[in-house]
Amino acid sequence: MRIxxxxxxxxxxxxxxxxxAMLAVDEYGIDVVLTGDEKIILDCAKENKIELKRTEIVDxxxxxxxxxxxxxxLKEKADSSMGVGFRLLNEGRxxxxxxxxxxxxxxxxxxxxxxxxxxxxxxxxxxxxxxxDKPFLLLDCGANAECRAEFLYQFGKMGSLYMExxxxxxxxxxxxxxxxxxxxxxxxxxxxxxELMKNADYNFIGNIEGRQIPYGDADVVVSDGFTGxxxxxxxxxxxxxxxxxxxxxxGKNLFTKLCALGVMGGxxxxxxxxxxxxxxxxxxxxxxxxxxxAHGSADARxxxxxxxxxxxxxxxxxxxxxxxxxxxxxxx
Length: 332
Description:
By secondary structure, the protein is of the alpha/beta class.
């Protein structure tokens, strides 16, 4: 298994990306291809005493930053660390591609360079999210700010396939994010999508309100990219506020610190349960090869877990399963 890694994507590149890649090599037994300025990569590894194992470096020119137009990955910055990463993936020099770089640029690269699976109208970004029960999949998280009802219908199908094949969730419950449970609620888009999804061949359970999402009432939550990104960012922000609040309460004085000792085990379990670093990033669903978007602020551990998503994709052959399902749908 050979994973291509954009060594210069993200806020903490290249140091944390290289460290995370080596952690992934050790834990998952993979080979990696690092794309980026070779001299900087080697100097960074030397300065930080990082042993480069099972690693090939492909020297590139330039980096796509958050201020660049997303389409530069196609032409103007095709020789950047991200652009070359996509090219190597499409040439078969690696089995999957992982980057913590610009979400928009990764979406453009995955859609127009790696290209869609036949029958998929729009690829989407899907993120594993924590809940009070068990993790669920949220999609779309930002690839498609504006959608058609048929896109949402297909997101539900791709999300269901992911949860079945990757998370081993039998007959996953698929819900549509809305401002009410009733089928009469929502925008015209959501109402139209509801009508399509209620006749779907996956387990559609209806609308889900925002307050029910954290309880884990659905295994897959479907939305347009604008709404999904708001849910994702709000979720992360509230989790951080609550965790910081808990730390503040128990750190006030000696008495509260002693109280904390009695519940520390439970607090650590809760922090781990709601820690976004456990999954490392998001996956592009609906494209021909595995593409993973790691968190932009990823540290080594977070990036290692993003690589884990690519490993899961390959081990469970989700691309072939998706091609098979959407191929049958096209034949009907």
